[in-house]
Design goal:
heterodimer, A: alpha/beta, Rossmann fold, 6-stranded parallel beta sheet, 11 helices, 8 strands, 40% helix, B: alpha/beta, 2 domains, globular, binds thiamine diphosphate, binds magnesium ion
């Protein structure tokens, strides 16, 4: 749900909320809540065997997609890894289509071909969830190359996990993006672990944003639980990229509540229950609700109503998905080669 | 004879070889503290410590290359790829370096290493996470490719692969790690390049390996038996070197051949088998060779499309009836 911050709205003068329109702020709250409830439903459906494959939930990280995609327009691009439900919802993809995709139905985002890890929507400039770690980073730089090539005022936000910063493509992409001044914002969602391996056990430099130094790239580290901080840092990077075409590396410090995927344990050999519980106290949705409450932008009845509205959206998506047909078998052979016109 | 799961059998092979040979170490993502993404290395960290059971960052090109370098100067690496789909990130290291080293260096250096992990489709993992890449590796001179179908072969072949002087691509299956089977008591190995007749038959030869053998071809053979068709089932166990004599001799007896593989048809392993049999047993063939493969498309996520794309018992039965001229028209 990309937002244009230029929208004329009743002025909110609080500095905590950066004078952002109330409408925008409440939309972000609703969006984070939608991602949370949508995925809680996914977890349920996965448990019932209705969703298959690998399913990676974004619980705990909602402020990152919401705040950062809140800083771009509909014309800007987004590309991410397999933990992609949050980004897809934030970029305005219909929850019905996402849920249908999860259930492998013909009305899904990719007609049941990609599943949870591979959501796409070219109408929303959403260039995919990608399941080979690091595979999409050079692609993001390529999109940025095209933006610059056409001299457009656009950016691409490229999300990755902390674990992805150790694969070769990360370094190759960072270097070329900086060398050629490509308008890509690389966003590391540092949730401390790549599967069961902590940043400390996998990265020689644990302040991941500092890697930008070796590529002469701008960087910042942000509290990824704070949707406003995420927005502010991303907006700054986006504005800079639109002015200069220069890339930025942003490190968002965040946390995933669930196991790596639905088939992995929440805690175990690699992290303690205590760590998970103490991180949950910094819940991005709760934190933002507190701000809205203290700033007088939302009250108890607003939050209660939001729960109801969101619940309805989620339930509708499930009904839509369940009532949708499976893809017809002929669909197996479509979209393999595109017809060439010779032009 | 003890009964163990596939993952236990592979674990025993690594355990025994590490106990036997100080040069052997295991490296890969999540192999140590997490005890293996599929728990194949369970307990090895506790036993051998983090000098020999090494967790890596997500950096396939890097840690496969580290395996090659270590092997060139005398170690015996076992490199685990979380799945073979991710080995493609290291394809340059494997194809341009591991496979070439011995020949290109004129014998100065060789690469005794194993690259192992699961391959093939599991359940709705979609296009990038479901690939059967054995033909991609078998294509490359300098590499050996092993694909066991049961715990006994898994253990015996992995031990041989670890002792082999060449880079060995050892492809397991996520779906088969829980399969149980009997293994011989004590120390044993199974030679690379020797297949096995799983069931004798007279009417048709069926060649299948790994999951296709246990989940598809094996069941088709039962069904065919009920229809009065006696199929001879062959598990080559090794894709390269292939046990050509075993297959050719079987076809000389049955005069018909069906090859079942999970990978795609174009330039697949079955194409190579068909060619070899055509060359060596042309006069014995009573029907054109049939192949059952995955449909020639990237594998979709949706369950119904996935099932429709992959080889099935039904497709094998149909192929057998084709070579028996029993499908009618
Ligand atoms: C090249 C490659 N290697 C291994 C994997 C298996 N794998 C999938 S996700 C993952 C961990 C990634 O961690 P991180 O980048 O921190 O992202 P997070 O899951 O925390 O969002 C691994 C090892 C893969 N998909 N691709
Ligand atoms: Mg992570």
């Amino acid at each position: 749900m990309s937002t244009s911050t230029t929208e004329v709205e009743q002025k909110n003068t609080s500095s905590r909320t950066m004078g952002l329109p109330k409408k925008t702020l409440l939309k972000w709250y609703d969006e984070m809540l939608l991602i949370r409830r949508f995925e809680e439903k996914c977890a349920q459906l996965y448990g019932m065997g209705k969703i298959g494959g690998f399913c990676h939930l974004y619980n705990g990280q909602e402020a990152v997609s919401t705040g950062s995609i809140g800083a771009i327009t509909e014309n800007d691009y987004v590309i991410t890894a397999y933990r992609d439900h949050g980004h897809a919802i934030s970029k305005g993809i219909d929850p019905n289509a996402i849920m249908a995709e999860m259930l492998g139905k013909s009305t899904g985002t990719t007609k049941g071909k990609g599943g949870s890890m591979h959501l796409f929507d070219h109408r929303k400039n959403f260039l995919g969830g990608h399941a080979i770690v690091g595979g999409h980073l050079p692609i993001a730089a390529g999109v940025a190359f095209a933006i610059k090539y056409r001299n457009e005022q656009k950016v691409i936000l490229c999300y990755m996990g902390d674990g992805a910063t150790n694969i070769g493509s990360f370094h190759e992409s960072m270097n070329m993006a900086s060398l050629w001044k490509l308008p890509v914002i690389f966003i590391i969602e540092n949730n401390r672990y790549g599967m069961g391996t902590s940043v400390e056990r996998s990265s020689a430099v644990t302040d991941l944003h500092k890697r930008a130094v070796s590529y002469n790239m701008r960087d910042a580290v942000i509290d990824g639980h704070d949707v406003l901080a995420v927005y502010k840092a991303t907006k700054e990077a986006v504005d800079h990229a639109k002015r200069t075409h220069e890339p930025t590396l942003l490190e968002m410090r965040t946390f995933r509540y669930r196991g790596h995927s639905m088939s992995d344990p929440i805690h175990g050999h690699y992290r303690t229950k205590d760590e998970v519980e103490s991180q949950k106290k910094l819940d991005p949705i709760e934190l933002f609700a507190d701000i809205l409450r203290t700033e007088g932008l939302a009250d108890a009845s607003y939050f209660k109503d939001a729960e109801k509205r969101i619940k309805k959206i989620v339930e509708e998506s499930v009904t839509f998905a369940e009532q949708s047909p499976e893809p017809p078998l002929e669909e197996l052979y479509t979209d393999v080669y595109r017809e060439s016109t010779g032009e | 004879m003890p009964t163990v799961s596939f993952r236990e059998a592979l674990n025993q092979a690594m355990d025994e070889e590490m106990a036997r040979d100080e040069r052997v170490f295991l490296m890969g993502e999540e192999v140590a503290y997490y005890q293996g993404a599929y728990k194949v290395s369970q307990g090895l960290l506790q036993k051998y410590g983090d000098r020999r059971i090494v967790d890596t960052p997500i950096a396939e090109e890097g840690f496969v290359g580290i395996g090659i370098g270590a092997a060139m100067v005398g170690l015996r690496p076992i490199i685990e790829v979380m799945t073979f789909n991710f080995s493609l990130v290291a394809y340059d290291q494997i194809v341009n370096h591991a496979a070439k080293m011995y020949s290109m260096s004129g014998g100065h250096y060789y690469v005794p290493m194993v690259i192992r992990g699961p391959g093939g489709a599991a359940h709705m993992l979609a296009a990038t996470h479901s690939q059967s890449l054995e033909s991609l590796y078998a294509h490359i001179p300098g590499l050996k490719v092993v694909m066991p179908s049961n715990p006994k072969d898994g253990k015996g072949l992995l031990k041989s692969a670890i002792r082999d002087e060449n880079p060995v691509i050892f492809i397991e299956s996520e779906m088969m790690y829980g399969d149980k089977g009997e293994i011989p008591e004590g120390e044993y190995t199974i030679p690379i390049g020797v297949g096995e007749i799983k069931r004798e038959g007279t009417d048709v030869t069926i060649v299948a390996w790994s999951k296709m053998l246990t989940r598809v071809a094996g069941k088709a053979v039962e069904e065919l038996a009920g229809m009065g068709i006696s199929a001879e089932l062959i598990d080559p166990r090794t894709i390269r070197p292939m046990d050509w004599d075993l297959i050719v001799n079987s076809v000389k007896k049955t005069n018909r051949l069906v090859v079942v593989e999970e990978g795609w048809p174009f330039a697949g392993v079955g194409a190579q088998i068909s060619h070899e049999v055509m060359q060596r047993a042309f006069d014995y063939l009573d029907a054109p060779i049939e192949r059952v493969t995955q449909e020639d498309v990237p594998l979709p996520y949706a369950h119904n499309l996935e099932v429709a794309s992959l080889p099935s018992v039904e497709k094998v039965v149909k192929a057998v009836k084709n070579v028996m001229y029993q499908n009618g028209k």
